[in-house]
Amino acid sequence: MARRILWGSVALAPVTIFVHYAFHPGEVVEFVLAAIALVPLAWLIGEATEQAAHHTGPGIGGFLNATFGNAPELIIALFAVNEAKFEVVRGSLSGSVVGNLLLVLGFSLVFGGRGVIDRESSFVSLALVGFAVLVLLIPSVPGWDGDPERDLIAELSVPVSIGLLLVYLGVTWLSLRRHRRLHVSDQASEMRAWTFGTALLVLGLATVVTAVIAEILVGSIEVFADKAHLSEFFVAAVIVAIVGNAAEHGGAVVVAARGQIKLAAEIALASSAQVAVFLIPAVALLSWLIDPLALSFRPVELAALGGAAMFTFALLLPGRSSRARGVALIVAYVAVAAAFFAAGER
User: Which domains can be identified in the chain, with CATH numbers?
Assistant: First the structure.
C-alpha cells in the first residue's frame, strides 16, 4: 500500500512544475508544494539506486548509492549555493546528520522495539560523525569572529573537505561489502528487479526533475521563512533536512516495524555518517564551480552534531534497542530543533 501511494504521489512533481510556471501562485504555496513533491522523488531515486545495485553487485552498487542516494540534498545544497544562501546550505546538511541520528533512529527503535544492534557498524558510523565534527572545527572556529563567508575560510575548507573524503573512501572500502550484503540480503526477496537500463533511466529522470523542484524550493525559502516567522536557518536545518531525507526516513521505520531493527539502525546511522564525511565535503568542493562555500558551521550546529553522536553512542552501548531508547532519541531531537529555533539568524 505504501509503495502504491508513493508511486501515485510521484505525479506531484510535474504538477508542482506546471503550477510554478503557469500560475505563479506565490512563494509560500510553491515552498509547500515543492517540499511535498520532493518526498516521492527522494524515494524514487533510492528505489532506482537499489535496483541498479541489484544488477551491478556491491562495489558499483555502493558507488551508485553514495552518488545518488543523497541526490535531493546535494541538489538542494548546490542550488542554495548558486543563490548565495550559505546558511541554508550548512543548515540543511547539519540538520540532515542530526535528523538521521536522533529522529530517524528514534522512530525506528520505537516501531522496532527490542532487538539487537550491530555494535561494530554502529560505532564506526558514530565515530565518523564525531571525527567530522572535530575536523570541521578547523574552518568553523575562525568564522565565529568576523565574516564567516570570507575567502580565507572557504580556502581552508578545501583541504578539510579532501581529508574527510579520503577518510570516507577508506572506511567505505573496508565496510562496503558487508553493508551491501545486509541491504540486499534483507530486501532482495521483496524487490521486483528492473533491468539495469530501466534503473538508470529512472535514476536520471528522477534526478533531473528533482533539480527543477529543488530550484523552486530554494527560490521560495526566504519568503516562506519570513511569512512563517521562522529563520532561514531553522527552515533549512529542520524542515528542508527532514524533507530531503523523508523517503529514506520512512524506509528505515518500515524496515524496523517488520522486525529488522538491525537493518533499520544501519540505514539511519550509515546515512548520517555519509552526509557528515561525504556529502558535506562534496558540496564544499563542488561549490568552487559556482561560488565557494565556507564550512563555517555555527557553534549550535557543531554542538548538536557532537551531542547527538555522543548521546546515540551512550544509548546504543549495550548493543540492544528498546522503545524507551527510541523515545529518548526523539525527545533529544525536539530539544535540538528548539535550539535551532532559538538560535535564529547568524
Answer: 2-343 (1.20.1420.30)
